[in-house]
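User: Can you fold this complex?
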Amino acid sequence: MGTSHTAEADLSRTVLAARLAAIPGSAEAEEHGDALWIVAPQLDVEAMAREMTALGCRLITMTGLAREDAETTIIYHYCLRQQYVSFKTCTRGGAIASITPTLRMASWIEREIHDFFGVQFVGHPNLVPLLRPPGLKDGFFREAGPRSTPPEQD
Amino acid sequence: MPYTIPIGPYHPALEEPYKLSVRCVGETVQQAKIEIGVTCRVIELLVQKREWVPAVTLIERVCGICSNVHAMTFCRAAEQIAGIEVPARARYIRTIIAELERMHSHLLWAGVAAECIGFHTLFMEIYALREQVMDLLETISGNRVNYGMNRIGGVNRDIPDPAPLIAATQAMAEPIERDIVPAFMNNPTATRRMSGIGPLSKEHAIEWGVVGPMARASGLEIDIRADRPYNAYQELGFKIVTQQAGDVQARVVVRALEMLESVRLVTEALRTIPSGPLRAFEGMPRIPPGEGFAVTEGPRGEAFYYVASDGGTTPTRVKIRTPSFVNVPALEVMIVGQQFSDMPLIQASTDPCVACIDR
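Assistant: Here's the predicted assembly.
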C-alpha cells in the first residue's frame, strides 16, 4: 500500500468519479459542500476499501447514525489530498463487512461503532469493546439517543 | 522467555490514563497491546442533547490542551450546513488563537520530551516560554484553558489592540530558534536519546493513517492548513514542515520548527487583521436540516467533526475524530524491537491526548 502524491495530482475529478462509480454497489457521486458524496445502500464496502486504497485515498474515519428501522447508516469519510469523498451506506440485518482486513487503521473505528450502535462488523479480527464504559451494553447510543434518522431512499 | 509488563492505566510514565501491555524478551519489546476508554465521557451523545450554543461550550471541553480546535471545528461544520460565511476579521482571530494554541501545545509536549530524556534545564526553559504563550492567550480571551472564543458564525471576542501582542509574539521566536531547536537537533544528549528511537517509516505512517506532526516527521506532506486552507491560511500563506527520519527526534524537530511557523502566522495575522464585524449574525443560530463536516489542523493533527441537523434546537449527530485516535494505535509498530526503557519516551512522542481519544 502506498500513496503517490504525483499520482494523486494527476487523478482528475472526472477519472476519480468514474472509478468510484465502478465500485460494486456504488452510485454516481454528487457534490455536496466541498466533498463528493456517494449514497449507496448496497455498497460492497470491502471492494470500496480495496479501490480507495489503490487510489491512494486515506480513510479519515467512519460515522455511525442510528436509523428508525433499527439499522445503522455508516458513512466512510475518505480524503485524497485536496478532495474529500464520503460513501454513505447502511447495515443489513445489523451487520456489515469489516474493512479492517484491508485497512488496518479501521480497527478502532469499527470497534467504536460496535460499542455505540451495536453494529456487527463481519470479519473484524478483534471486535471487542474499545470505549464502552462498564455496565453499558453494545449499542447504548441507540438506546440512549432520542434521535434517529429515516432510512435512506434505496 | 517472553514476559508482559502492564503500564497504566495510571502510571507516572503516562500523562493521561490508558493501558499498555508490553511483551518483552529481555529488555527488548516484542509487542504492545493498547487499551483505552478509561476517561470516556460520551461527549458525542451528551452534545446531541444540548442546544447549539451550549453544545459549543461542551465541545470545547473534549480536550484541555487543544480545546479551541474542537470548538472551532464544530462551529465550522455547523456553519457549512447553514451556509454561514464567517467575517474576515473573525477568520483572522480564529487563526491567531489556533496558532497560539499550537505553540503552547507543542511547548508542553517539548517540555515532556525534555523531561523524558532527563534534560531538566531544557524542560524549565521550555515551560517558562510556554507561560508567555499562555499569557498571550489569557490577554486575548481572559482564559488559560478553555478560551470561549468561538461561536457559530464567528468569534465572541475582538482583539482591539494587536500592537503589544505582535511584540510579545515576536519575542518568542528568538528563544525557540536560539535554544529549543538547536537543543533538540544538535545537543549530543538529546540526539543519543532520541535519534533512531521509536521509528515509524513513511509506509507504516500511511498504513496506520497517522496525521499531524507524526505523519510529517515520517516524510508525509499532509497538513490541512496547506491542503485545504481555511480561516486565514490562504491569505497568510503556509509552509509545511517535514522530516524524513520518522523517529522520536524527527517528531520533536517537526514540532519545534512548526512553532516558528506559528510565530510567523500569528505575527502576520495580527499585522494584517482586517476591520469588520466579528460574527455573521447576532442571536441564536438556526441550523437548517442537513449534514456537513469540517476538518482542521490541530496541534496533534487533523481534527474531524461530522455534524447533522434536523432543523431543531440541538444537533442530531456529532461525530468527533481526534488526531490522537489515529496516532496512538501506531505505537504497536513503533515499539517493536525497541528497548523497554525507551517506552515512556516513545509513547510520549505520539503526543497522546487520551481525553481526546476517549472523549
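Confidence is low (pLDDT under 50) at residues 1-7 of chain A. The radius of gyration of chain A is 16 Å.
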